[in-house]
Backbone:
């Protein structure tokens, strides 16, 4: 929603705060295409992004993605490439992944950490033959790039052979949903049934070399396509020729990812949450847990060893009215023990779901808790995530 | 013959007369419509509001019999992404609340200004009514809001 509408509309209390704009907005290569499809735009991380399109509301778009396929324009995200002989050693200083063990073509979710053991961003890193391909959040683009450039200079000054390159000439779009494989196969002319989830490779889409990763942010099978910007519109239009494929905006994107139990940086994880608190210790490679060598490793490894950290991220199902970010979480006895970080009435479930941080000890599955919504206290239960079973492709 | 013609023209004359609306429709800057009928006002959110909100998934309406003050929060309309409080534009007593809309939230998107009505207030202060926006002013507001 535009800032004006959000301000005056029923004095809306909880349109996502992230939609409030500051300063001049950037536009992706697909802006006119979105407009042509009747997109309603909203500001996000300094970009004018489509929230929803004329043909269907956010709810139907969400459901369409789980049943058919949707295209999300995610060109606002930061794409970088790290090259040079010492690229693994360099990037391992900044992230928790085991980059030496990651096979060529393999992709992994990882975390940029800070010296307090907190998380500066989450990211997907793909091992390419001579480089590392890194995709991170639009909301952290400036911060991440500055962080990479600051540290690469330190490494270079010490004689390391490594460079950080910002990818400015490719647009990123995400094709997500059970019909994604069929939709993409038509344009690549290759059988994709043997392409595993969390792998990436360069492939010709309609004759144009693109980086194709089998990954996404919806819990469904899907692909993230890094396309030379000049071809982004034509390839998107070609995909849309398939009647099962529809454009989808940020509205559906958020409800899909929350149902899939995926964190949103800035809401569910931030610079104060440690991997153990965020329940993301699995992203830290075994060798990294033994050796450390990443920023904040001392704090993080100590927390892992001593089961430290005061809080834990959990999934909740809540009775009654939907609970949103910042709603208080109470124990069954009514003691305040935590806070919701993301909450949504889940379109695929017909239930209210949320992520929250609660005091350690209240995080076991099936724990009965309460959530404060306006002037009422509603029952809630801790559940394991994902809330909706994943549809990831199995080879 | 003359009688029939007379009846016919009389009938068509009656049908041609526009039916007078004894209800007045007013608006608030927070996109609520208020239909006044004697001393009872029916209130809901406008088409403009439901369009901006998107699919409505949850609704709370006030209790029948409750006393409400001007600008008091009396309910809520929620979409997947947002929560919008509903404020009473008038002081008085809640005489009815739409339970259909609570069960079938899609009514608000489909028929926001008719079947999607939220509640009725028996109001006390004509000044509060006079302060509400008329249709022309509300239209101006929505046109400038882009």
Residues:
């Amino acid at each position: 929603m535009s800032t004006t509408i959000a301000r005056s509309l029923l004095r809306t209390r909880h349109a996502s705060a992230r939609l409030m704009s500051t300063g001049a907005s950037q536009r992706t290569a697909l802006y006119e295409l979105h407009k042509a499809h009747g997109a309603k735009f909203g500001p996000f991380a300094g970009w004018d992004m489509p929230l929803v399109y004329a043909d269907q509301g956010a709810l139907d778009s969400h459901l369409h993605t789980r049943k058919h396929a949707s295209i999300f324009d995610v060109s606002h995200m930061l794409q970088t490439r790290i090259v040079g002989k010492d690229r693994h050693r360099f990037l391992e200083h900044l992230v928790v992944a085991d980059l030496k063990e990651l096979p060529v073509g393999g992709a992994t979710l990882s975390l940029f950490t800070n010296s307090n053991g907190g998380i500066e961003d989450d990211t997907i890193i793909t091992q390419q033959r001579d480089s590392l391909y890194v995709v991170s959040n639009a909301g952290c683009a400036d911060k991440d790039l500055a962080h990479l450039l600051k540290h690469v200079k330190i490494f270079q000054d010490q004689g390391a052979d490594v460079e950080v390159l910002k990818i400015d000439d490719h647009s990123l779009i995400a094709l997500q949903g059970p019909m994604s494989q069929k939709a993409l196969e038509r344009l690549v002319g290759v059988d994709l049934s043997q392409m595993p989830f969390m792998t990436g490779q360069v492939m010709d889409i309609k004759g144009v070399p693109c980086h194709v990763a089998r990954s996404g942010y919806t819990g469904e099978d899907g692909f993230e396509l890094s396309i030379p910007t000049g071809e982004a519109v034509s390839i998107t239009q070609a995909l849309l020729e398939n009647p099962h494929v529809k454009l989808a905006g940020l509205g559906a994107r958020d409800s899909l990812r929350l149902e899939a139990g995926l964190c949103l940086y800035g809401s569910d994880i931030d610079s104060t949450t440690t991997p153990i608190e965020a329940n993301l210790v699995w992203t830290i490679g075994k060798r990294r847990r033994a050796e450390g060598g990443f920023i904040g490793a001392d704090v993080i490894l100590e927390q892992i060893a001593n089961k430290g950290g005061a809080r834990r991220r959990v999934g909740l199902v809540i009775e009654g009215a939907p609970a949103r970010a910042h709603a208080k979480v109470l124990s069954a006895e009514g003691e305040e023990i935590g806070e919701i970080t993301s909450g949504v009435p889940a379109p695929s479930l017909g239930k209210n779901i949320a992520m929250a941080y609660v005091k350690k000890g209240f995080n076991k599955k099936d724990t009965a808790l309460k959530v404060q919504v306006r002037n009422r206290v509603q029952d809630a239960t801790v559940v394991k995530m994902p809330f909706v079973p994943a549809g990831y492709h199995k080879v | 013959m003359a009688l029939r013609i007379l009846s016919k023209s009389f009938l068509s004359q009656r049908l041609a007369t526009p039916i007078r609306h004894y209800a007045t429709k007013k608006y608030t800057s927070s996109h609520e419509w208020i239909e006044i009928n004697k001393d009872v006002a029916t209130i809901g959110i406008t088409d403009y509001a439901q369009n901006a909100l998107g699919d409505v998934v949850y609704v709370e309406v006030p209790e029948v019999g409750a006393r409400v003050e001007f600008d008091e929060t009396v309910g809520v309309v929620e979409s997947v992404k947002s929560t919008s409080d509903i404020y009473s534009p008038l002081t008085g007593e809640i005489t009815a609340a739409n339970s259909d809309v609570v069960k079938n939230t899609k009514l608000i998107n489909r028929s926001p200004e008719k079947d999607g009505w939220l509640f009725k207030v028996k109001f006390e202060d004509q000044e509060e009514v006079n302060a509400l926006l008329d249709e022309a002013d509300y239209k101006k507001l929505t046109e400038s809001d882009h």
